[in-house]
Specification:
This protein has 283 residues and is α/β, with parallel strands linked by helices. Helices cover 49% and strands 13% of the residues. It folds into two domains: 166 residues, NAD(P)-binding Rossmann-like Domain (Rossmann fold); 102 residues, Orthogonal Bundle (N-(1-d-carboxylethyl)-l-norvaline Dehydrogenase, domain 2), CATH 1.10.1040.10. Bound molecules: NADP nicotinamide-adenine-dinucleotide phosphate.
């Protein structure tokens, strides 16, 4: 018993900023593995499930990070991360580490490092996998940063799944853009293939089964997943980040087409699996 108390006291104090879909799932996983956790969310009520699961909630981001060894951000986009970390940066302890897990791209990640005190290293650690994978500790964490910083945050990140060390600062954010380029182009390609199936009179289930054994098999698996919660609007943001990384002169016709599909999708708050929904029968 005494040993367990000592181990608990020796454990890193973790602050989690952002308890949306992914933040909540990550928080649940951390709590389930015995992690001490303080949380903050702009909309306070959205932190309640984690409080019920054992986390401490604060009314301000700066208050949440004050005693933290590791600060995780899991927010919508670069603007949100900048706002939240900008407000909390002055309260960070020297030697604390910030782990940025949202998908914001390598450019914004580099800018973020400039917001932090020199004594606070930044690790970029966006994730592959949705909320279910996070709760089950089966995320793939794409980690970029200085080797010492990656070592320092490993005990926390290892709780969330497989940590893939990508290289120096920004390298995790960069690989995440590569993966999500494949994800958004793949899922929109499946939608096109199913539209052709419908037009050519091929039964939808037959088409999905056949596609699942072909080159789009991974995209078919994701597009037919139920219960995931990666909003179309977030995928659209990721397509924009990838296009920004490419620059205006790059043709990238497939990615540009996928970005247009995502921007025009009728249900931006629903999971990307809705992109393959069959059009409704006319009334
Ligand atoms: N969902 C997935 O399956 C998935 C998978 C991999 C990666 N990601 C990435 O993970 C990140 C989070 O995704 P999510 O699905 O968890 O999104 P979400 O459910 O929409 O949550 C977004 C979070 O950001 C907060 N937020 C947004 N703007 C803010 C601002 N200006 N100031 C303070 N807080 C702000 C929200 O606070 P409020 O509650 O107050 O709105 C909420 O806590 C995104 O970058 C996404 O691309 C998502």
């Amino acid at each position: 018993m005494a040993d367990r108390c000592l181990a608990f006291l020796a454990m890193d104090a973790v602050a989690l900023l952002g308890t949306g879909t992914m933040g909540t799932a990550i928080g649940r996983r951390l709590l389930a593995t015995g992690q001490r956790l303080t949380v903050w969310n702009r909309t306070r009520a959205r932190a309640d499930p984690l409080v019920a699961a054992g986390a401490r909630a604060t009314g301000a981001a700066a208050e949440a990070v004050r005693d933290a060894d590791v600060v995780i951000t899991m927010l919508t986009d670069a603007t949100a991360v900048r706002e939240v970390l900008g407000a909390a940066a002055g309260a960070l302890r020297p030697g604390a580490h910030v782990v940025e897990m949202s998908t914001i791209g390598p450019r914004a990640t580099r800018d973020l490092a400039r917001l932090l005190p020199a004594t606070v290293p930044l690790v970029d650690a966006p994730v592959a996998g949705s909320a279910g994978a996070a709760e089950a500790g089966r995320l793939v964490v794409l980690a970029g940063g200085a080797p010492a910083a990656l070592d320092r945050v490993a005990p926390v990140l290892d709780r969330l799944g497989t940590v893939r060390r990508c290289g120096g600062p920004g390298s995790g954010a960069a690989l995440k853009l590569v993966l999500n380029t494949a994800l958004v182009t793949g899922v929109t390609a499946v939608a096109d293939a199913l539209a052709v199936a419908a037009a050519a009179g091929v039964d939808r289930r037959t088409a999905i089964e056949a596609l699942a054994t072909g080159p789009l098999s991974g995209a078919v698996a994701r597009a037919t997943t139920t219960g995931a919660a990666f909003a179309v609007a977030l995928a659209a943001k990721d397509a924009r980040l990838a296009l920004a990384a490419l620059g205006d002169d790059a043709p990238a016709p497939v990615l540009r087409a996928a970005a247009s599909v995502l921007a025009a999708a009728p249900h931006p708050h629903d999971d990307i699996a809705t992109l393959i929904d069959a059009p409704e029968d006319p009334p």
